[in-house]
């Protein structure tokens, strides 16, 4: 499309034939000139395979009469009209000659929306797609199994989860899964189901079930068949396992209601005072904007006649004391004037010769902004950038208000964000773990998770050996509410508030009715993989739910997280707790939509470390009431959810090497009566919110156990070369390792180093890379685990190729 605004083209194509329409815009003078017959302007619209350069063009006419004249000329109008400066824009299907003749008759024929080039590109794309389908249909596809697992959830009900990738990526490929009902049973005795095709950013990822399937018996094998002819049978393994229960003296359950950020902060402050030997408060350096807003009032109900005023001072700092009145004088031909007494602003409206109001919204706005005394108190604006040509109505003195409803116990001043630091030795010598919650205001369960974890650590330290090992050997930072301002607003004003309360919107988007849309999505405000770098999943629209802010790290809340991980470089692990949906994810978290260009994936060893740790962490979550986080909701963010440009986990991993996860608490609940999974929402009834807090606090404790094991790990990894396939002309091999680790190798007999080739994954969720050589090769390698332990010596092995020994 050639835009009349910027001249850029897109691939939009519109049908070459459109029906004429009549637009009722009212009577206007008819354009001068005789009305020809259709044949007078269509001599080159003849049947032709080339379509003679026909295009869909913009035409701007002054009024409805111009539209009527186009219809009378037999012009092929599309069913479209839009008021624009200078009249009405309509769209017409025209040949080059028709366009020239219309211009000669005085019509304003503008640029093309689509032309034959767009048509040709669409046809070429269609032919290419159809050819790909035909090619895929001609040969059986190859199926690569990614995961096949069973698990129990809640009341020990069993579920099956399967993921498989087909080499045929088109949408017509259908995969079907069939499974048995236990050892020795028929292969199809357990059931069968069609799998869903999972795509992201327009690219095929793999097939899976939309939801785990309930099964009555534990399957041992599942067979996947494709409509293209491919098939594969794989064993079904158990996902998650039982975790040793805490000791009998272990105490938990320290939250009994949803808490606002003031309560949460007071709670951790009290904990630090109660346990000074093992805890302290860390004041983060960047105070937030605060739970405060400018005061406002709006006058009028029709856009053209509406204006709003906004106080210069926050409502809590005097803005709520300002008042504005729009007064109609009794006299005729009175001028528009503004007077100010203290904080009371009076606008005396202009009148015409009959003493009727003559002031428009724009005139009142300009008068208020031009008056020195009034503009010291407030600014005025028309409604969302309207021209403001409508006449205003008189209005009595109206107090401006910030519309904030929290009790006075919630401070309106900038908020001092606090983190609770827990550890027997808090000098930076221990591995640090950063647990942070409530980046998004409406996620009320998440601060309870952080508070519950802090309480468990401090109150069990003297009585529980496992807790004592954590506190003695780690440096733990708990930040229960990253976004206090937005959370206060969510609690008391608008419960679905996601962002903070900083209003970056210009006047056109800053009227009182837009107040629930202001703020920055803090988990889109970081500096890695951001919108400003071209990554997807954020917006520059200041009223969007995923508004990234005016710049990277523009918000004090985001800068606080960065400061903490920079100030304490011993922090090696992090957990960002969100809700809801029951996800467990890790970096990378963003991609560019064009080509789905993902941030660099973590290396093979770290990816396996994430997966292995996940089993321990999610088994702890399951230990509370049986909730299982599904395999299909576990993995790197883009693989299981979406792209989140500028998120905090990417910030901490790519800039400082912090191994970080994202919890989305609140897994779907299975309804046995309907046999459906039901979502729980951001603010479930507290009975459900309490259970979520309990189980995911157990998950946070398990993350601390992972970090403690990391800190104590001195064991060297061990690896082996494993041949996985042979032909007469090649041999394929890979490496097996006894723990998550990276393998560095050479194929030329030279001694490997950490700059040598590194073993990778075969693909997204596809397991270990397979290496193929076409001649007998001496392979040398060694492995290094995530904790930095290196295999004792580099190893070597001769890989034989049958035809070349």
UniProtKB/TrEMBL annotation:
Gene3D superfamilies: Zn peptidases. Residues 379-707 form the Peptidase M14 domain. GO terms for molecular function: metallocarboxypeptidase activity; zinc ion binding. Its cofactor is Zn(2+). SMART domains: Zn_pept (SM00631). Residues 1-32 form the signal peptide. Keywords: Hydrolase, Metalloprotease, Protease, Signal, Zinc. GO terms for biological process: proteolysis. GO terms for cellular component: extracellular space. It comes from the Bacteria. Belongs to the peptidase M14 family. This is Peptidase M14 domain-containing protein. The lineage of its organism: Bacteria, Bacillati, Actinomycetota, Actinomycetes, Streptosporangiales.
